[in-house]
């Protein structure tokens, strides 16, 4: 099997599963319980929070655990909007955000908020200058993703953060779901106020995510109840998945240190092979793009879903676009925003790598791709 | 020391078969169900199967089950989701004073949004009266939320009667069944329930997973926006392993329901008869016909904190009420609703809750230890 769909979800590290099983079976207590078993799980929870905070170079009290990236993004955006609505009702985001950012923004528009969606250039990037121009007296939130999930374009988060340092009333949220453990980002240096991460994108488990909430930022909770997570997120803590997430993050960051050069090498090798295929057009920008995402379009009206299925027959897994929208036959939002045109936006294929992928896989996968293209060309002809 | 866990109502150990069921979805079939490739389809299949199983357990249709991150999210979605989607039909909500905080805090949030909430009282057994529900109903009532059984004292609410009287009213009927599900049978059509919340970790399933049943006629706004998962009602990559684990837990719970009821009733009798024989002063909170696994007992002359500390030192894990309120020193809102703020019972009551792995011997030992502690604390 060659798994090239790591931006949709990753395979959990074996050590992560071990941690999960141990905590789920041995330390199953409720962290809110006062007895020994409850206190043990509370200690595990605290430890996981400290480990994650240390890895991200922030304070443990700034880490809020959620059920995943979607919840964290919804929480960040609506939490700011509802908390600071009296300060202003304007939000700035980009045209290429993940649906878990853009959809809450649309929901807020229906509730009387005003949202500016910044366009991107042909490389899939916004600039700090664009943000500056869009800023208003009543702008309460700027939400810009770190790494785009469809094409891998890296946004100038640090520059935007530096700009927003001059606007203390505007909160800065970054969706870091695709970037964490692949593209470094110093959240303090980038002056980020809120930052979203999801465990299952870095070989952790589904059902756990992180919202970094900088000290001093107040949020209106999305889930009310027992008051867990410093009153910000109610619900019994998913301790086994959270402990597993702390382990996944540690291992993923270690792999980054050891293997990032190799990952770049793998990506470059992929690009070289793909460029040589005449029926393919590369969409991922050459510069300022993440080391693990390659997006290309199929020419001559070849159907991307058929291509995906054809490859799956050889146990090779890629995706048409982001998994969340892959069932719709709509053109890629990011590709459209980059201005590649309708046809190219409708035939996008995404390869997404992890530190588990190798150079050795490439010739096998490329051969299968060429075969699939040949087959598809016959059909279209 | 062999520890005795009697806090299953706070959270329960994951059943070994549940863990086993989950592992393949982390190691082999780890695909994102939204992906169109083989892995994605395998995951989708597991999610569909689980949905059918959960639906069947409450007499619902598959399309009416929404997977959530747990009971709190299910309750919040039921309350806030229906209130927001139906605000044009009215802004009145009826609930009870003894609901779980996931319901109560959601109601308080809605009050801030301009909704009007009636909190019904309960009698000294912790029961709500259907007549009170009827009297509180208004033309602009859009939702009635009453828990199936209370998590602190185990009392079962007259769900059938309330469902019956709401049949002709526009108000939706939500029940937080987190504590009762898997221990007593429930059927959404028989009980005329429109929304029902379930949590995995209370029934030996994993944490981080739950479900909300929403009748197909219910208008519901999502809490989480994003991808189109769960028929656009709950965005977020599906926690397939968690969902498969929940399904396994549901399957086991359904199969063993009768057996558990008998088992826990026996444990309850064992515990209470040891208390009675010992001559200590005690009173059971709640009613005899409540959930079989919850025994909430007042020990006059003691105080909750010292009881819990002493029990814990003796290796017995019990609780003062719901785990979510356990951290706070405030007396249980449930006991206050039953006995009033001035009653001594609200400061001297302990909840023992039974579950997987508990034996008669354990209960005997726990009861004997409890007696010793009570005697010591009351100088008898």
From TrEMBL, chain A:
Entry keyword set: Iron, Iron-sulfur, Metal-binding, Pyridoxal phosphate, Transferase
Stated family: Belongs to the class-V pyridoxal-phosphate-dependent aminotransferase family. NifS/IscS subfamily.
Entry EC number(s): 2.8.1.7
Cofactor needs: pyridoxal 5'-phosphate
NCBIfam families membership: PRK02948.1
Gene3D superfamilies recorded: Aspartate Aminotransferase, domain 1, Type I PLP-dependent aspartate aminotransferase-like (Major domain)
Protein name: Cysteine desulfurase
Molecular function per GO: cysteine desulfurase activity; iron-sulfur cluster binding; metal ion binding
Matching Pfam families: Aminotran_5 (PF00266)
EC supergroup of this enzyme: transferase
Residue stretches making up the Aminotransferase class V domain: 2-362
UniProtKB/TrEMBL annotation, chain B:
The protein's enzyme class: transferase
UniProt catalytic activity: (sulfur carrier)-H + L-cysteine = (sulfur carrier)-SH + L-alanine
Signal peptide as annotated in the record: none
EC numbers for this chain: 2.8.1.7
InterPro entries (alphabetical): Aminotrans_V_dom (IPR000192), Aminotrans_V_PyrdxlP_BS (IPR020578), Cysteine_dSase (IPR016454), PyrdxlP-dep_Trfase (IPR015424), PyrdxlP-dep_Trfase_major (IPR015421), PyrdxlP-dep_Trfase_small (IPR015422)
GO molecular function terms attached to this record: cysteine desulfurase activity; iron-sulfur cluster binding; metal ion binding
A Pfam family that the UniProt record links to this protein: Aminotran_5
Cofactor(s) demanded: pyridoxal 5'-phosphate
Protein origin, superkingdom: Bacteria
Domain named Aminotransferase class V: residues: 4-365
UniProt keyword annotations, A-Z: Coiled coil, Iron, Iron-sulfur, Metal-binding, Pyridoxal phosphate, Transferase
Ranges in coiled-coil conformation: 243-270
Statement: the UniProt record of this protein carries the keyword Nucleotide-binding: no
Keyword Phosphoprotein: no
PANTHER family registered for this protein in UniProt: CYSTEINE DESULFURASE (PTHR11601:SF34), CYSTEINE DESULFURYLASE FAMILY MEMBER (PTHR11601)
Family label: Belongs to the class-V pyridoxal-phosphate-dependent aminotransferase family. NifS/IscS subfamily.
NCBIfam families xref list: PRK02948.1
Protein name: cysteine desulfurase
Native species: Parageobacillus caldoxylosilyticus NBRC 107762
This protein's encoding gene: iscS
């Amino acid at each position: 099997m060659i798994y090239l769909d790591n931006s949709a979800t990753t395979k959990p590290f074996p050590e992560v599963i071990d941690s999960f099983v141990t905590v789920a079976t041995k330390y199953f207590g409720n962290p809110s319980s006062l007895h020994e078993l409850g206190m043990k799980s509370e200690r595990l929870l605290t430890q996981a929070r400290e480990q994650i905070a240390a890895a991200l170079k922030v304070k443990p009290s700034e880490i809020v655990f959620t059920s995943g990236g979607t919840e964290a993004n919804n929480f960040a955006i609506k939490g700011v909007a509802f908390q600071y609505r009296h300060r202003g009702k304007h939000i700035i985001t980009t045209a290429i955000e993940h649906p878990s950012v853009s959809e809450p923004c649309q929901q807020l528009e229906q509730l009387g908020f005003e949202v500016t969606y910044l366009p991107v250039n042909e490389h899939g990037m916004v600039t700090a200058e664009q943000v500056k121009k869009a800023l208003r007296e009543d702008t309460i939130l700027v939400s810009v993703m770190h790494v785009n999930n469809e094409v891998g374009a890296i946004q100038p988060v640090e520059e935007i953060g530096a700009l927003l340092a001059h606007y203390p009333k505007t909160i800065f949220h970054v969706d870091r779901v695709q970037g964490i453990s692949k593209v470094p980002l110093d959240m303090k240096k980038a002056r980020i106020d809120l930052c979203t991460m999801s465990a299952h994108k870095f070989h952790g488990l589904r059902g756990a995510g992180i919202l970094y909430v900088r000290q001093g930022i107040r949020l209106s909770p999305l889930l009310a109840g027992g008051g867990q997570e410093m009153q910000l997120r109610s619900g019994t803590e998913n301790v086994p998945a959270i402990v597993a997430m702390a382990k996944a993050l540690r291992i993923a960051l270690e792999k980054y240190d050891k293997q990032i050069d190799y990952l770049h090498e793998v990506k470059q090798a992929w690009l070289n092979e793909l460029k040589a295929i005449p029926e393919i057009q590369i969409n991922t920008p050459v510069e300022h793009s993440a080391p693990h995402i390659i997006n290309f379009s199929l020419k001559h009206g070849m159907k991307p879903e058929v291509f995906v299925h054809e490859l799956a027959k050889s146990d090779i897994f890629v995706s048409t676009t982001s998994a969340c929208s892959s069932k719709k036959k709509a053109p890629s939002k990011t590709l459209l925003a980059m201005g590649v045109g309708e046809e190219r936006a409708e035939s996008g294929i995404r390869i997404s790598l992890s530190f588990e992928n190798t150079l050795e896989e490439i010739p096998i996968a490329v051969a299968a791709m060429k075969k699939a293209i040949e087959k598809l060309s016959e059909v279209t002809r | 020391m062999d520890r005795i866990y009697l806090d299953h109502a706070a959270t329960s150990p994951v059943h070994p078969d549940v863990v086993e069921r989950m592992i393949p979805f982390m190691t082999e079939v780890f695909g994102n169900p939204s992906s169109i490739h083989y892995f994605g389809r395998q995951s989708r299949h597991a999610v569909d199967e689980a949905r059918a199983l959960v639906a069947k357990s409450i007499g619902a249709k598959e399309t009416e089950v929404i997977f959530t991150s747990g009971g709190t999210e299910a309750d919040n979605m039921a309350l806030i989701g229906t209130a927001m989607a139906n605000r044009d039909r009215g802004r009145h909500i009826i609930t009870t004073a003894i609901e779980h905080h996931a319901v109560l805090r959601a109601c308080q949030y809605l009050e801030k949004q301009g909704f009007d909430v009636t909190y019904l009282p309960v009698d000294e057994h912790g029961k709500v009266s259907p007549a009170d529900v009827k009297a509180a109903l208004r033309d602009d009532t859009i939702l009635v939320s009453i828990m199936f059984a209370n998590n602190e004292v185990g009392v079962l609410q007259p769900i059938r009667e309330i469902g019956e009287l709401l049949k002709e009213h526009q108000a939706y009927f939500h029940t937080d069944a987190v504590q009762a599900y898997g221990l007593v049978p429930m059927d959404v059509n028989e009980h005329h329930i429109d929304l029902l919340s379930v949590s995995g970790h209370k029934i030996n399933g994993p944490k981080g997973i739950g479900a909300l049943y929403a009748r197909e006629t219910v208008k519901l706004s999502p809490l989480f926006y994003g991808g189109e998962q769960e028929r656009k009602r709950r965005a977020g990559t599906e926690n397939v392993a968690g969902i498969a684990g929940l399904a396994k837990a549901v399957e086991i719970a359904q199969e063993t329901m009768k057996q558990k009821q008998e088992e826990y009733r026996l444990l309850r009798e064992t515990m209470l008869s040891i208390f009675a024989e010992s001559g200590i002063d005690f009173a059971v909170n709640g009613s005899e016909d409540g959930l079989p696994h919850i025994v909430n007992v007042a020990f006059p002359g003691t105080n909750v904190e010292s009881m819990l500390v002493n029990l814990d030192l003796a290796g017995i894990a019990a609780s003062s009420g719901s785990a979510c309120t356990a951290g706070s020193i405030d007396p249980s809102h449930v006991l206050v609703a039953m006995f009033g703020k001035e009653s001594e019972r609200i400061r001297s009551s302990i909840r023992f809750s039974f579950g997987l792995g508990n034996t008669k011997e354990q209960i005997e030992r726990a009861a004997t230890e409890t007696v010793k502690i009570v005697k010591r604390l009351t100088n008898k």
